[in-house]
Amino acid sequence: MYSYCTSDEEREDFILYYEKKDDNMVVHYADNDQIVVPYTEENKNKVLTKMRKQVKNCNSFLEDVSYSRQIYKNRWVWSLGFSFTFLMLCFLGIGGLIPLFGTTLFACLAVMNLKENHVCNTYIEDIEKNTLFVEKEEEINAPEYKNKFVNITSVNLDRLLKSKEEPKFNLSTIHNLSYYDIYQIVENIKHEKMFVDKDKVKTYLKK
Q1: What is the reported pLDDT for 196?
Q2: At what angle do helices 179-206 and 98-141 cross, to 10 degrees?
Q3: What is the mean pLDDT of residues 59-74?
Q4: How far apart are CA 16 and CA 1, in angstroms?
Q5: Residue 93 binned pLDDT confidence (cut-offs 50, 70, 90)
Q6: Collapsing DSSP states into helix, strand and coil, what is residue 36?
Q7: What is the residue extent of each domain of the chain?
Q8: What's the DSSP call for residue 12?
């Protein structure tokens, strides 16, 4: 997951993900620090429990980044509008070099704000992905849903499915998956459950 921190103090204790190396696990923190501990179920569960709490307690960060996204979006719209206005003045030959300077300046501002807006979108999508996963983690790891990966084209998902991690899906292992990957898995499970329920109804009516 990405860092949902608003201070350096929070970053020191915020876990991004872990990786297994031989008999150890390397835990990566938001302040770029790493710790190495033995890879045991107890240690893994401690890390994952903390990561779940991080997802559930990120409302304040989500509000801040959502507010920032709206600001950058508004600035992008304004910059684009001013840039277009100055560009029209350039075509009309009004104002000498001033419209050219204005077009360049506001075009650069539009690009900068668009990039910042994209960064905010990335954080929000990561929060949405992890929130959805925490809600559906048990179902996603349930072996009875055989068709949950149907019609999902994802290199990172394929790599995860080939890993030896069990259960394969947790808040650390889905680090490189997109929101769409998790959403599509959940939708596939929902459809599969729907057909199973239909089969149960048909079986009941035949009795």
Answers
A1: 62
A2: 40
A3: 92
A4: 5
A5: confident
A6: strand
A7: 1-57, 58-206
A8: T
